Amino acid sequence: MQFIIAGFQGIFNEPIILVYLIFGIFLGMVMGAIPGLTASLAVTLMLPFTYSMTHTAGISLLVALYVGGISGGLISAILLNIPGTPSSLVTCFDGGPMAKNGKAGLALSLGVFASFVGGIVSAVALIFISPLMAKLALLFGTWEYAAMGIFGLCIVVSLTGEDTAKGLIAAIVGVILKMVGIDSLSNVPRFTFGAWQLSAGLSLLACLMGLFAMTEILMQVRDLQEVSTIRESGKVPMFPGREVLKGTGKVFASSALIGVGVGILPGVGQTTSTLLAYTYNKNTSKHPEMYGTGCAEGVIASETANNATCGGALIPMLCLGVPGDTVTAILMGAFIVHGITPGPLLFTRNVDLVGVVFIGYLLCNIIMYVMEWGLMKGFINLLKIPMNYLYPIVLLMCIIGTYSTNNRVFDCGVFLAVGVLGYVLRKNKIPLAPIVLGYVLGDTVETNLRTAIVSTQGNILPWFSRPISVAFLIAGVVMLCLPLLRSYKKNRKAA
Q1: What is the pTM of this model?
Q2: Are 105 and 237 in contact (CB under 8 A)?
Q3: CA–CA separation, 42 vs 17, rounded Å?
Q4: Burial of 458 from C-beta contacts in 10 A (0-12 / 13-18 / 19+)
Q5: What are the pLDDT tens digits along the chain (495 aa)?
Q6: Which among 84, 74, 130, 136 has a CA at the least distance from the CA of 107?
């Protein structure tokens, strides 16, 4: 209750936060609606502009961008059959066919309403689960945090597809990027190659912008073209109607629970949760043959799980300092930039900030619902803007934001170099998400593990004698073995 009270007090004491929430939702939906401009990019672009704000206002703006960006992807997914964000891919399965069948307005209404329901459920989960998890996290020591970081990396690697090796390569690249500079524990330079500019390490913002902005621009620039023909949406009702929603209660409930549950798992993200929710509801449906042909339940399952994952992903980031997905990894970087360390102590030292995040996230979902419905025609018109006009603006914003962080031209060079690196990796089908999580979690693992080993004078046996750390290590091994097991079963079945 104290966090709820603190949240309302923080917002009413600083009314500008409401303005930032509205602006963040709007900009996030714009970025999410346009294919190629994702929620990750939206949060990354605006991160430098939060430096001059208070920590509550800055974090609130980024959370609003997160919510708006994730929800905005449904617009292009339905009208163009092109996902605005990777997480809205599953929405294309039934949203696209509905639009093709002349029910674009209904599909948009269902998507917006389902996003709202998923967001509200995850907001409730965030408010009530986070304090409990934070209390549990107070039992964690250095051994537990090191094991938890390894578990998070194992999850990321195991969920990167059938080629686990590529996920592992990506995670290692992220760890190496973080290791550049003077070692904080031994004051020994690492990967500096004699260049004094690298002594301070690679700027987190420059790396993030390079991976998610520059890489995307390089990937898209070869195929710049005007957006394909947009299907007419017609009237978009604010509420889909009782007849349409009749019998969909199970879909809403199961998808919301799956979204929150998957969001809590470190490094999994919306794409996995939407696929799981869609598959589960299809397999348990009385009419599974309707899925993929323009089924309302398919849109509901995808978008409910999509937004429910947002609140779920914030829980481990706030309570444990372990991001739930790529965007929360960027948000965690924002916390660090503002001089705040996510983790269990956050709930005792920064009650006002935690409260504002809780209430701000709840308000974001309400604002998103009203704004996305009210401005739907405007968002549709945005999709008609040629991308060759948008990408130069995005690139300019990236360069300005990167330079303004430390006023160093060198950071702009890092931004370009990391962008080229990301492009090379993407061309070789190596995912980028594990790089960010490797950057964040790698530091958690290294710092805590080395500190623990020093405290025990080189003895690592406590790592295997503490129940929580052992549980994380076993779970990590299991997650790494699952893809290998699936591959073995697939090959055996084929033989």
Answers
A1: 0.76
A2: yes
A3: 18
A4: exposed
A5: 677 888 788 888 888 989 999 999 999 888 888 776 778 778 888 888 888 888 888 899 999 999 998 888 888 788 777 677 777 778 888 887 887 777 778 888 888 898 999 999 999 999 998 888 888 877 778 888 888 788 877 776 665 655 677 878 888 888 888 888 888 777 788 888 878 888 878 877 788 778 777 887 787 676 555 445 555 555 666 677 777 777 778 888 999 998 898 888 776 667 778 877 888 888 788 888 788 778 888 888 888 998 998 888 888 888 887 777 778 888 888 888 788 888 888 888 888 888 888 999 999 999 999 888 888 777 777 666 676 777 787 788 778 777 776 778 888 888 889 889 988 888 888 877 778 778 777 777 888 888 888 888 878 888 888 888 888 888 888 877 777 776 667 777 766
A6: 74
Look at the block and give the residue holding tokens 């290590």: 473
**C-alpha to C-alpha distances, 1 to 23, 118, 138, 225, 277, nearest whole angstrom:** 28, 22, 20, 51, 31
Render the burial of 395-406: b for 16+ CB within 10 Å, e for the rest.
bebbbebbbebe
Domain count of the fold of the chain: 1
How far CA 220 is from CA of 210, 215, 223, 230, 385, in Å, comes to 14, 9, 6, 20, 15
Q: Which two tokens stand for residue 84?
A: 């605005």
Q: Measuring CA to CA, how many Å separate 198 from each of 194, 312, 404?
A: 8, 36, 18
Cβ atoms of 58 and 334 closer than 8 Å: yes
* Pair of tokens at residue 247: 């019998």
Q: Which residues fall within 8 angstroms of residue 486, CB to CB, at 6 or more apart?
A: 162
Q: How far apart are CA 78 and CA 100, in angstroms?
A: 9
SS3 15: coil
Structural domain range at position 135: 2-494
Best CA proximity match to 153, nearest among 268, 264, 310: 268
Question: What letter would DSSP give residue 211?
Answer: I
Angle formed at CA 381 by CA 375 and CA 385, multiple of 5 degrees:
135
Q: Residue 466's CB: how many other CB atoms inside 10 A?
A: 17
